[in-house]
Specification:
By secondary structure, the protein is an alpha+beta fold. The protein has 10 helices and 9 strands. It is 45% helix and 18% strand. The strands form 2 sheets. It has a 7-stranded mixed sheet, with helices on both faces. A two-stranded antiparallel sheet has the order 1-2. Helix 2 crosses helix 4 and helix 8 packs across helix 9.
Length: 273
């Protein structure tokens, strides 16, 4: 990664990067001196310097007839990173408050059928968040085993940790999947707490059920999650009766599926992680 890309992470535009690096090279300089070494107009240069001062990356020193500029301490970047982390933490803390407020504003009743449709990778990721939004629940899935590759390994691991944090249990039926060792070791995740406490799976023959796409079933909705390349879609039907009926179909298939390791049984009622 070039230094320009590094500076861009801290919100510096191309011109701000140019001026900042010029100051770092020259040290204390006036605007007149800076204009001799860059192609930026003087009026624009003043605005750039003010922006860098506001970011805490440039300091000033007032002389008798003019103002001198220089780069601030490197610790300024540490401060910016800490400020960003604090803001991210505050945003995360506000998510639940926003959800509760928006829910209170909604006139939609659970007895009404609602339909949500998402297309593209961003939509698929958003729907995976929604599947896990209610804590202390069980989600069952007809699993094509393709979803992790679609959203990426890092995002998939984050989702598994959300399952652990929110006590969301997953039971999966698939056509093929590596077994899980007694200590939770498997080839597709490093989160052993997830594999031992929050995930159960069984295999079913393709002759009985050929699983080409994913169907997630939550307590009140069915999510059709398409993983076909170029046609990535997610459709959520919220209806308690539909979800209950699909759950019965899943349980029928679960009884016909095969446990390949010790993690092939149903979760114990009221079991906690």
């Amino acid at each position: 990664m070039s230094i320009q890309n590094d500076l861009r992470l801290f919100g510096l535009s191309e011109q701000e990067q140019q001026v900042f690096l010029l100051l770092a090279q020259r040290g204390w300089s006036t605007v007149v001196q800076l204009t001799k070494h860059c192609l930026i107009k003087r009026s624009t240069l003043y605005r750039i310097l003010e922006s860098l001062i506001h970011k805490g990356l440039v300091i000033t020193q007032v002389g008798q007839k003019t103002t001198f500029y220089n780069t601030a301490s490197i610790d300024s970047f540490e401060g910016m990173a800490l400020e960003s982390e604090n803001k991210t933490s505050q945003m995360r803390n506000s998510i639940e408050k926003i959800k509760k407020h928006l829910t209170s504003l909604s006139n939609i009743k659970l007895t009404e059928t609602t339909l949500l449709y998402y297309k593209g990778l961003r939509g698929l990721k958003q729907m995976q968040w929604k599947i896990r939004e209610k804590p202390n629940t069980e989600v069952v899935v007809f699993d094509s085993l393709k979803w992790g590759d679609v959203v990426g390994a890092d995002f998939a691991e984050n989702l598994r940790q959300i399952n652990v944090d929110k006590n969301v249990r997953f039971r999966s039926i698939s056509n093929s999947e590596p077994s899980i060792a007694p200590d939770g070791t498997t080839s597709w995740t490093t989160n052993k707490k997830y594999t031992t406490k929050f995930y159960r799976h069984r295999l079913i023959s393709r002759k009985i059920l050929d699983i080409q796409q994913d169907i997630f079933i939550t307590p009140d909705s069915i999510v059709y999650w398409g993983v076909k390349t170029g046609d990535e879609v997610a459709v959520q039907i919220t209806n308690i009766e539909y979800a209950a009926m699909m759950k019965q179909i899943f349980e029928f298939m679960w009884d016909k599926a095969k446990a390949i390791d010790k993690f092939g049984e149903r979760f114990k009622i009221n079991s906690k992680g």
